[in-house]
Amino acid sequence: MSTFTFTSPTGGTINFRDGRTRTTGLTRAQSLDLREATLLAHPVRELGPDAGGHGNRDPASVYLAVGAEFPTWIFSGEKPPLPEGDSDEPTVVL
Questions:
Q1: What are the start-end ranges of the H helices in the chain?
Q2: Full-prediction pTM beyond 0.85?
């Protein structure tokens, strides 16, 4: 299972390990935004495919949600498996 951390410029963290998401230094609004974002599918690449939307116990959902909600946060750790796009398809941005 994937283990990773996102760190904010101000020291807040979002940590995923063993199917659990733990946060420090987030406001209540940020925590709620993150939880909502884990329930939405996000594009893996600019034009798809979409992935995630399975809640805060799914590594791909957390990884994509943090990227969408907090794009300036720094990632460290093991990237979760994400669906591959067809590299021969001209609409897929790699």
A1: 28-37, 59-69
A2: no
